[in-house]
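Q: Second attempt. The first request was missing the SMILES, so the protein and adenosine-5'-triphosphate are both included now.
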Amino acid sequence: MALEAGDELHIASLDLLHFRNYDAFHLDDVGYLTILVGPNAVGKTSIVEAIQLVTALSSFRTSKASRLVKWGETRAHVGARLVGESRDLEIGLDIAGGSRSYKLNGKAKRVSDLTGLLPAVTFTPDDLHLVKGAAAARRDALDALGSQISKNFAAVRGDYVKLVKQKNRALKAEEADAYLASIDDVLVRVGVQVLSHRMTIVSRVQPYFQHFYREISGGSERVELNYVPCWLRGDDDELTRYAFDRDEALARLEAYGRAMRPVERARRRAVAGPHADDVLFLLNGRNAVHFASQGQQRCIVLAYKLAEAAAIEDATGRKPVLLLDDVMSELDEHRRAYFMEFVADDIQTFITTTNSAYFTDAMKRRARVVRLGEGTA
Ligand SMILES: Nc1ncnc2c1ncn2[C@@H]1O[C@H](COP(=O)(O)OP(=O)(O)OP(=O)(O)O)[C@@H](O)[C@H]1O
Ligand SMILES: [Mg+2]
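A: Got both inputs this time. The predicted holo structure:
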């Protein structure tokens, strides 16, 4: 990715039209820290979602574009001005007929053309279940990060998702073994690419994750992210850092696929492949699912989110925008303060909250506080 170092972009203005509950919303002169305050259902998350769609180029709430359009309307628009030292860009997203289309300075662009332009890290209360929740949430988090730092990964993952769908259709139709084997030939190859990309993402995030955890917890526990391929899952007691080369992964995945064929036939869906891998958080070498306390889980997620931001900056040369939706109420004073210190100088941040009392006067002085639901929207 050819990115000019030092050419940081930030959001200077934002416009919504028929997006979610808004007829129209406009915000300009956006600075480094914006606190969006308002009662429930006023449209705070919708603003964060709109910003995510023009930065991370996806929404944490839905992959269905039609849900973003205000009920009763047929199209919606999100526009943002992105300003850097030497650049002034206009990014636009049009949503109509269930699909999204992007423009940069008026010219149509594919999502892959815009990848990494201005990345974002989103942190919502749902993320607090990342440690103990289903594997899918952790895989999706890793993939969303990967897609923001590598166009190649986004493309490979897209191919892989299509292959799994094709295989699931074939299993439902009870196709012959030869046909399934021909899908598997490709699926295993593309699957191993997904797997290696993910391992690379994990290794990029790992040192930052460990650093931030130490900083935030002030404790002596050691944390680690552990990527577990499908053929090793379920063996919680034997969590070792797994390293492999491509050939080995290919052989293991092929063998596992063959062994699981009867299970796949019975369940009528693909169970072998990186769509069934997991990425675990370890606490002192043990699976955090079984051992982490509430506070430790929060620390883990917070450290992971900050590590995402650092890994994005590493990979793209750009500081991501931070979108913190309603998480301040979930953090204790110490972690809130740590967060505010992290975002302090130069990382553009949007925070939503129903209660501005979570912020000290010093924080509020640094921020622009936008009150929603008081005739300002
Ligand atoms: N496509 C849509 N069209 C119209 N309204 C919508 C659409 N999608 C969601 N809404 C509504 O928009 C309102 C604002 O939702 P949003 O999630 O942004 O609120 P919020 O301010 O974050 O609230 P909370 O503090 O409870 O999280 C809600 O009433 C929601 O039901
Ligand atoms: Mg909300």
